[in-house]
Amino acid sequence: xxxxxxxxxxxxxxxxxxxxxxxxxxxxxxxxxxxxxxxxxxxxxxxxxxxxxxxxxxxxxxxxxxxxxxxxxxxxxxxxxxxxxxxxxxxxxxxxxxxxxxxxxxxxxxxxxxxxxxxxxxxxxxxxxxxxxxxxxxxxxxxxxxxxxxxxxxxxxxxxxxxxxxxxxxxxxxxxxxxxxxxxxxxxxxxxxxxxxxxxxxxxxxxxxxxxxxxxxxxxxxxxxxxxxxxxxxxxxxxxxxxxxxxxxxxxxxxxxxxxxxxxxxxxxxxxxxxxxxxxx
Length: 281
Description:
By secondary structure, the chain is of the alpha+beta class. It has helices at 3-20, 41-48, 52-60, 68-77, 82-91, 109-117, 137-142, 156-162, 164-169, 173-188, 195-207, 209-215, 266-275, and strands at residues 123-126, 132-135, 226-232, 236-245, 254-260. The chain has a five-stranded antiparallel beta sheet with strand order 2-1-5-4-3.
């Protein structure tokens, strides 16, 4: 992302988090008309130990260069999580950018072999922009359209927010989609100015009111392994644990692996699905 784009994104993010802050958490009374959320700029500046003018310039995306210490102080004042702090620092130029958009669109052969070896656990490889670069038979059994969806739309975020099958597959779609969006934003950082990422975001804004509303909330979350629920039309509810890792030789790829939750019938359910699923290409 160019410097002007980073400054603008940083300003918008700080403004959004300032507006969302709960005043009671700071021992502050509601603003006029009983507004319980939102801090004034001068309040954030005071809590951060910076001048109101300097903080205002930051929110306005002015051509200034805040120090790492200033960004850390503002993040503490806004009660940001460690993941959100990393995001702020990346926009300030104090964290390395994610891999560029020139990564190959498909997983290399050795990564595909690893995915295949993970059967019957549904597994797939994600590019930096969340494009799906490869998958195994178990994942094709869980989501049959992965092999036929167009390359342009074979993106996890796009599918979550636009594919009716995926919405039906996730009984907690409202919660999961918001979490995915917050994780995506945390990971994308300095790449928000890349053409491919900008196009994806604009397409999603036009295609999904839920994405549009979520994007404007500026939520940031780091990935955490967790149990996921899937309601598959053939086998009913699957309880799977969601894990993510990156190969040492391809840190630009995230491998997502779903394993059966303990003491559930998920392993047998997956075996049943795979038995009736054609081989993935």
